[in-house]
Amino acid sequence: MATLTSVSSFGNIKGPDVPDFGAFKVSSELFGWKNKRTGEVIQHRSTDVSTITFVKTNSSRNSLKSGIINILDLYQLRIELNESKNYKVLRFDGFTEKNVHDLNNHFTEHYKLSCEKDEVAGSGWHWGTYEFENATFRLRINNSSGIDIDTKSIAQATIPSKTDLAIELKTNSTVFNSDDLVEIRFCVPGKTDPEDAEIQLEDLKQTFLMKSGLDEMKSEKIALLMDVPLIVPRGRYEIEFTKRSIKLHGKSYDYTLLYSNVIRMFLLPKPNSPHVNFILATQSHALTCPCEGNFGEQLAVIGYDFEHV
């Protein structure tokens, strides 16, 4: 049986939750990935691992000098950590079939874990069955992997219509010039009894909220200001204060600002005017709006009459 050396490295591997590539390293006790662009390192112990799955993602064609086309199957290494790490899922992309064979032997021998195999659904179907596995929502299409959603990455879950469930996802504000998936809508077809369909949708929504921890945050509301005019972002908003953040609910968009991202606050009177501006200066693009992807605001500006300050 072929085994890897004490420390083995695999280059040109895409890291979890970022568009960057780097080196994946594995030893008898540790595994990790180093971002080639930023130098950031992700590292965990073998004892942190709960399950390991190799997911066939796509095939890559390489043309050789002899004119022969070599087709390579590429795989994603999906590592789910255990309860001590909140069942976090790490996904590394770009492994060849030979890499998978060597890693499978390594994990079996040193981590004492049996690796599973899966593949991405390619039938073209857009319906399937779902389940919640620890902290992950999984949609299976024709017995293959369709969609995996880490529930901790969910920003909001709503029911916009009688058959639809909308899931808003958090965006990575530290990564720019990248495409982010910000919303997914699931349709639960209507049943004979419309009330049954609504109950099923509501149950699914509440499960998402519970798994993501959003149901706990709802009870943390401290204060609520109605119909407050904002200059940035422009419009009238309902401002909700919680223990961890300020939420701006507008007619078209909602924004969230964590207190930990506030750098400074200012009260600036407008010259020759009875108005004063209250300014919240934040870290870069910290005032996030899920519907707008990465394009957050760096300032929140609220206008008041001086006598109301």
From TrEMBL:
The keyword Nucleus applies. InterPro entries: PH-like_dom_sf, RTT106/SSRP1_HistChap/FACT, SSRP1-like_PH1, SSRP1/POB3, SSRP1/POB3_N, SSRP1_DD, SSRP1_sf. One of its GO terms (molecular function) is histone binding. It is found in: Nucleus; Chromosome. It holds the Pfam family PH1_SSRP1-like. It comes from the Eukaryota. Residues 9-117 form the FACT complex subunit SSRP1/POB3 N-terminal PH domain. Keywords: Chromosome, DNA damage, DNA repair, DNA replication, Nucleus, Transcription, Transcription regulation. GO terms for biological process: DNA repair; DNA replication. Its main location: nucleus. GO terms for cellular component: FACT complex. Residues 221-281 form the FACT complex subunit SSRP1-like first PH domain. Residues 124-191 form the SSRP1 dimerization domain. Component of the FACT complex, a general chromatin factor that acts to reorganize nucleosomes. The FACT complex is involved in multiple processes that require DNA as a template such as mRNA elongation, DNA replication and DNA repair. During transcription elongation the FACT complex acts as a histone chaperone that both destabilizes and restores nucleosomal structure. Belongs to the SSRP1 family. This is FACT complex subunit SSRP1. It comes from Theileria orientalis strain Shintoku. The lineage of its organism: Eukaryota, Sar, Alveolata, Apicomplexa, Aconoidasida.
